[in-house]
Amino acid sequence: MEGKLVLVTGGAGFIGTHTVVQLLKEGFRVSIIDNFDNSVEEALDRVKEVVGPALAAKIEFHFVSFFVSMTFQKNCRFDGVIHFAGRKAVGESVEYPRRYFDNNLIGTINLYEVMAKYNCKKMVFSSSSTVYGQPEKIPCVEDTELKAMNPYGRTKLFLEEIARDISQAESDWQIILLRYFNPVAAHESGKIGEDPKGIPNNLMPYIQQVAVGRLPELNVYGHDYPTRDGTAIRDYIHVMDLADGHIAALKKLFTPDFKGCVPYNLGTGRGTSVLEMVAAFEKASGKKIPMKLCPRRAGDATAVYAAVDKAAKELGWKYVLLTS
Ligand code: WQD
User: Fold this and answer.
1) Beta-sheet pairing, 122-128 with 182-184
2) Rg of the chain over CA atoms, in angstroms?
3) Whose CA is nearest to atom 14 of ligand 1?
4) How far is the CA of 132 from the centre of ligand 1 (A)?
5) Which range in 38-42, 68-72, 116-120, 155-159 is most confidently predicted, on average pLDDT?
């Protein structure tokens, strides 16, 4: 892999920054584009601090997605693309669906066109466990019937179908769809982590902001779910494990036998409820998290967690952190 050049869209974001750190450590060169919709340019300075000057020298950076074509012209030869860029909050997507269709769908379709123009046809695509909707059977197996239940999940489902159609029609495209479950935590240095703009949509950054006093209390959305404590269950995975899942997927794309468009779950296979997450955070941090029990959030599923065998068998990847 030494020296291969990878374009990382959304590379200044939560999962993007952690993946860039691991890509550099694995010997890849990296070019990043980001429109800072939900990230800050300073995050890239922190990435450079984490990896040190020698590896930092292997990072290029290009602002805003309409530069994608310029990025390609400038570099001409990307060996592959990891496509993170997109909006990713379930609740927000219910409120503002058009933003999600524009950003996630149009943005990705534009990216495919530029990739095709410059004959770069290897993509690791950031998909999501939300394509499973409220699965009949859990843990979710990759060939489970897909049926998203919110606009965010529908954009990811549409984009998976688009990827399948492209690779069906043009056999030289090699695409891996990574279905993330719930990314949490941060790089051990503490220099990079989840720092969304405005009020966090996701559970963990919200809890963290309550813990530091930036927000008064956590709204617990739904306590009447048919689960062990009435709150919804998700599969929370350490972001460093998720980053390593991208490295494994990228390496798979460069193997001669990889063909077509293949989905993989990136999760732990364990379900944790909202109240269990709060209790674990309180235990680990010693901070009490005040809570308010609220009605369910539109678009939320009751329980979603991953079957993890396929990624272990075909990518040689399994989560290692957050084991307790
Ligand atoms: C988790 C649970 C909420 C906030 C995320 C990502 C999505 C995808 C899947 C990557 C739910 C509850 C939340 C709060 C709460 N991952 N909650 N109070 O909706 O599972 O989706 O993981 O693609 O991108 O967004 O995550 O953290 O928003 O919610 O009670 O203030 O926490 O109702 O049950 P979700 P989440």
Assistant:
1) unpaired
2) 19
3) 203
4) 14
5) 155-159
ipTM of this predicted complex? 0.97
Residues with CB under 6 A from ligand 1: 88-90, 128-130, 180, 182, 201-203, 206, 218-222, 232, 234, 274, 297, 300
DSSP 43-68: HHHHHHHHH-HHHHTTEEEEESGGGH
Active site residue 152: yes
Amino acid identity at 3: G
Atom of ligand 1 nearest to the CA of 294: 30
**Cα(145)–Cα(132) distance, rounded to whole angstroms?**
7
CA of 203 to the centre of ligand 1 (A): 6
- State both tokens at 86: 């997109």
Q: What is the DSSP string of 238-267?
A: EHHHHHHHHHHHHHHHTSTT--EEEEEEES
DSSP secondary structure letter of residue 178? E
Each residue of 128-166: b (16+ CB within 10 Å) or e?
A: bbbbbbebeebbbebebebebbbbbbbbbbbbbebbbeb
pLDDT tens digit sequence for 211-258? 999 999 999 999 999 999 999 999 999 999 999 999 999 999 999 999
pLDDT of residue 196: 81
To test the pocket of ligand 1, the residue of 138, 297, 302, 305 to mutate (highest count of ligand atoms within 8 Å of its CB) is: 297
Whose CA is closest to atom 28 on ligand 1? 202
**Per annotation, catalytic residue among 112, 152, 225, 305:** 152
Structure confidence by residue, pLDDT tens digits, 94-119: 999 999 999 999 999 999 998 998 89
CB 146 within 8 A of CB 311: no
220 in Cβ contact with 78 (< 8 Å): no
- Residue 60 Cα distances to 32, 45, 142, 247, angstroms: 6, 12, 35, 19
